[in-house]
Amino acid sequence: MTIIAREGRAVAIAAKVEAFVRDIVIPYERDSRLGPHGPSEDLVGELREKARVAGVLTPHILDDGDHLTQRETAMVLKPSGLSPLGPVAVNTAAPDEGNMYLLGKVATAGQKRRFLDPLVRGEARSAFFMTEPAADGGAGSDPSMMQTTCVLDGNHWRINGRKAFITGAQGARVGIVMAKSDDGACLFLVDLPDPAIRIERVLDTIDSSMPGGHAVVAIDNLRVPADQMLGQSGEGFKYAQIRLSPARLSHCMRWHGGVSRAQEIATTYACKRTGFGKLLIDHEGVGFMLAENLIDLKQAELMIDWCADVLDGGSLGTAESSMTKVAVSEALMRVADRCVQVMGGTGVSGDTIVEQMFREIRAFRIYDGPTEVHKWSLAKKIKRDHLTARAA
After folding, report:
1. What's residue 4's pLDDT?
2. Of 75, 337, 378, 386, which is most buried by a Cβ count within 10 Å?
3. Which residues share a beta bridge with 166?
4. pLDDT tens across 180-215, in order?
5. Longest Cα pair distance anywhere in the chain, in angstroms?
6. CA 93 to chain CA centroid, nearest Å
7. How confident is the model at residue 1 (pLDDT cuts 50, 70, 90)?
8. Residues 288-311: what's their mean pLDDT?
9. Quick check: 165 and 118 in contact, CB under 8 A?
10. Cα–Cα distances in Å, from 157 out to 148, 149, 151, 196, 228?
11. Would the pTM of this model clear 0.85, i.e. be above it?
12. Given this model, what pLDDT does residue 139 score?
């Protein structure tokens, strides 16, 4: 398929997704089934059934199982993010979107039928069990600190450990669990719920858009059949990178859509509200903030497209996704903050989704790697490239 044909395909899908989110999903933003730990399972199911009927469920995966390119995915995921409920409704939300991508790349045919297909159909949610409690000295941004262990016991692996900030664990039916063997990191596919995987508590966090919230989980003698290992023993970090670079970029895509909506709302407010004898937008202090938002949104869009092109070119894109995650999350934070400021008291109220977008983007600056960790990683690359060039 030519580039022009692919772009036309993506434009058509994106238009359907945007119409669905604006017309069907946004009215649900005041639904009583929304809570501090995300939308209820009942609400998720209702929205996904409407998306299925509208033909926009899991729009980034085609009927033949093939994925849109990353550039096409950006065109589709951005409008899905126009509402905090949009990605949940059309099945482009984290962690499911990243987990589907990983399984599509690494899982066996049998694993895909059992674990991937229900995710693609929107019938199940998933969770990625990697991060561990800081109090245990476990893995956070440094996965090499992993404390969760896996030991081969006959034709099963026995897994023990604790995990933290596991998005969507409560209510998930598919789990991807990372643990370390004598060979190194391993990934396992598990059916959920499982009595050996116990949710200790669901954390109260600043964000509230993801179903199931973020849980602390205890894994006590979980037995997983050997054929449910994802890939090979000791290759878990490599597989995680296959997932993490596109997943970071997908977060950027979705939240770009969300903050673009916040800009729409703040602009409408500034063009209607008057103060000191004129519209707020005619005051430079307000108008300039909206102009700066426009600039940040465009620069973020260009970073997303650049990184998408790198990944589409076959690169793992680790450095590029780090740069994009830093640049986009920080830019969107500035935009969300200005939107709140433009709207004053209304901006910090629950009367619009601007306040929620501010909270969601603040959390985005931390998950999938805090800004500082990505900068540290990039600095290491700069040093390594410099020393290599000097030695050449």
Report:
1. 66
2. 75
3. 215
4. 999 999 999 999 999 999 999 999 999 999 999 999
5. 79
6. 6
7. low
8. 98
9. no
10. 12, 10, 5, 13, 9
11. yes
12. 87
Contacts of 338 (CB under 8 A, 6+ apart): 266, 289, 290, 292, 293
Secondary structure of the chain in HEC code, one letter for each residue: CCHHHHHHHHHHHHHHHHHHHHHHHHHHHHCCCEECCEECHHHHHHHHHHHHHHCCCCCCECCCCCECCHHHHHHHHHHHCCCCCHHHHHCCCCCHHHHHHHHHHHCCHHHHHHHHHHHHCCCCCEEEECCCCHHHCCCCCCHHHCCCEEEEECCEEEEEEEEEEEECCCCCCEEEEEEEECCEEEEEEEECCCCCEEEEEEECCCCCCCCCCEEEEEEEEEEEEHHHECCCCCCHHHHHHHHHHHHHHHHHHHHHHHHHHHHHHHHHHHCCCEECCEEHHHCHHHHHHHHHHHHHHHHHHHHHHHHHHHHHCCCCCHHHHHHHHHHHHHHHHHHHHHHHHHHHHHHHCCCCCHHHHHHHHHHHCCCCCCHHHHHHHHHHHHHHHHHHHHHC
Output the six-digit token pair for 99: 């987990």
C-alpha–C-alpha distance, residues 111 and 79, integer Å = 31
CA distance 51 to 310: 31
Please, what is the average pLDDT of the chain?
96
